[in-house]
Specification:
The protein is mainly alpha-helical. It folds into two domains: 1-46, no CATH class; 52-135, no CATH class. The protein has five helices and no strands. It has helices at residues 2-13, 56-64, 68-88, 102-112, 116-134. Helix 2 (56-64) runs antiparallel to helix 3. The longest helix has 21 residues, at 68-88.
């Protein structure tokens, strides 16, 4: 899904677009696009990425991993494996975009936020330590 969305995004910005506001042009400047007549003087092309896509089973296995550290390690290993395959390819790309599947982004986001009981426990411990210091 994110591979398709990344391709749609690159296609949408290929011709460039005008900035959002004339009032503050430095905040939202025009974007020149990705064609040869842009300041980059090159064309950006997204080629078929069949070789660089994680399988559904890989993604599900990572998402279901109970250990946060192990899930991150598994995701990094899976992405690195795909990057190594791309590097060994006879038409090696100059630039690679890694678009993480939404399920993996959500998995990391959930593990980063403290649960309600952790916040309450932390606040109680902080309150108790403050009380001890005032006696």
């Amino acid at each position: 899904m994110t591979v398709e969305k990344t391709g749609e995004f690159l296609n949408a910005i290929e011709d460039g677009f005008e900035g959002k506001t004339k009032k503050h042009p430095n905040l939202h400047p025009d974007f020149p696009g990705l064609r040869n007549q842009n300041p980059y003087r090159c064309r950006f092309e997204m080629v078929a990425a069949e070789e660089g896509v994680l399988t559904k089973s890989q993604i599900e296995k990572i998402a279901k991993e109970p250990s946060d550290a192990r899930a991150v390690e598994m995701a990094v290993d899976a992405v690195m494996e795909q990057l190594e395959k791309l590097e060994a390819h006879h038409e090696r790309p100059d630039v690679v975009t890694v678009s993480l599947p939404i399920i993996l982004i959500e998995r990391v986001w959930r593990s980063e936020r403290p649960r309600d009981d952790e916040v309450i426990g932390s606040e109680a411990a902080h309150t108790n330590s403050n009380l001890k210091g005032t006696r």
